[in-house]
From TrEMBL:
One Pfam family recorded for the sequence: UbiA
Biological source species: Kitasatospora nipponensis
TM annotation in the entry: 155-175, 181-203, 224-242, 248-266, 286-308
Key word Membrane present: yes
Keyword tags: Membrane, Transmembrane, Transmembrane helix
CDD domains the UniProt entry points to: PT_UbiA (cd13956)
Name listed for the protein in its UniProt record: 4-hydroxybenzoate polyprenyltransferase
Biased amino acid composition, Low complexity: 1-18
Recorded topology in the membrane: Multi-pass membrane protein
Locations listed in the record: Membrane
Sequence segments annotated as region (Disordered): 1-22
Length: 310
């Protein structure tokens, strides 16, 4: 996004360059928490851990799942902020601790590498097959951060990451059962929907920064119209895919999902803006927030049919 400051000899965003202030451990810790995309990191960790418990993992197994998912998500979040540093400076992202100088770039790089290094043995602790499934999803997320998000294949890392989560859970169970196809397909569809809705508030700024993934190429209006479709399809698979009759809770979850999906396409009362997403308040992040709620609803359905996964 072009800077609104008057032209000077300095590079765009130079006024936001980090100041050489002492970095106390507490400041660095707070900065790392802000840079890791904490709400989605905790949400994904909690949801997958709950899914592991519902599918039959014991307490130790659930703890391993939580640790593996948490370290993987932390590594991806820190990688994202480190890779996007120049772009965030140019866009005036005062909500980013790297931009404001609360963190040094090297600190975030080291943190991402350490989290990834921990994620590998924690993922493999549940077995080679389960670990491979999770690490493939983590690798896809890193690939997204490192450049895939600028291509037409920007949806693929999300589809892989979310689609393989049921496999990570079930392949760590006794007997290493492969999850049913409906759970893999539902996870992949949920991932695609998460991708479309997550970038929706940032499309204008992304285009100004040269990011041309699938949603950016589709444009705001078409992306907003398309985003609910994979989410509704994911919920439908989770309702009608498991064996047995569809119960009242299934119908209720389907209705909730439909309402939440509708919320992602409601037009905003504010005019389009290229301001940083943080400046837009909750309205600008509504599609992303509803996606998290949709994910929770879908995982609730998986918990209701946890035995069917194995």
């Amino acid at each position: 996004m072009p800077s609104s400051a008057a032209p000077t000899a300095a590079a765009p965003g130079a006024e936001l360059a980090p100041r050489p202030t002492p970095r106390r451990p507490l400041r660095s810790a707070l900065g790392l928490l802000r840079a890791c995309h904490l709400p989605p990191t905790l949400a994904v960790t909690a949801l997958v851990t709950a899914l592991a418990g519902g599918s039959g993992r014991d307490a130790a197994g659930c703890l391993l799942v939580a640790a593996a998912v948490l370290t993987g998500q932390l590594s991806v979040g820190w990688c994202n902020d480190r890779v996007d540093l120049a772009r965030d400076r140019a866009a005036g992202r005062r909500d980013k601790p790297l931009v404001t100088g609360l963190l040094a770039p090297r600190t975030v790089s080291v943190a991402a590498g350490c989290a990834l290094a921990l994620c590998v043995p924690l993922s493999l602790a549940g077995g080679a097959a389960a670990g491979a499934a999770h690490l493939t999803g983590v690798a896809a997320a890193w690939g997204y951060d490192l450049g895939v998000k600028r291509t037409l294949a920007s949806w693929l890392p999300y589809a892989l990451g979310f689609g393989l989560l049921p496999a990570f859970v079930t392949l760590g169970l006794p007997g290493r059962p492969w999850p049913p196809i409906w759970s893999l397909a539902a996870g992949a569809l949920l991932g695609v929907g998460a991708h479309l809705t997550n970038v929706l508030p940032d499309i204008d700024a992304d285009l100004a920064a040269g990011v041309r993934g699938l949603p950016q190429r589709l444009g705001r209006r078409r992306t907003r119209a398309l985003a609910p479709l994979p989410l509704l399809a994911a919920c439908a698979l989770l309702v009608f895919g498991p064996p047995g009759p569809v119960g009242p809770a299934d119908w209720a979850a389907l209705a909730v999902t439909a309402a939440l999906a509708l919320a992602t396409v409601l037009p905003s009362t504010a005019p389009p803006s290229t301001a940083p997403p943080a400046a837009g308040g909750w309205r600008g992040r509504l599609p992303f927030l509803t996606t998290l709620a949709l994910a929770a609803t879908c995982v609730t359905l998986l918990l209701l049919h946890g035995a069917a996964l194995a």
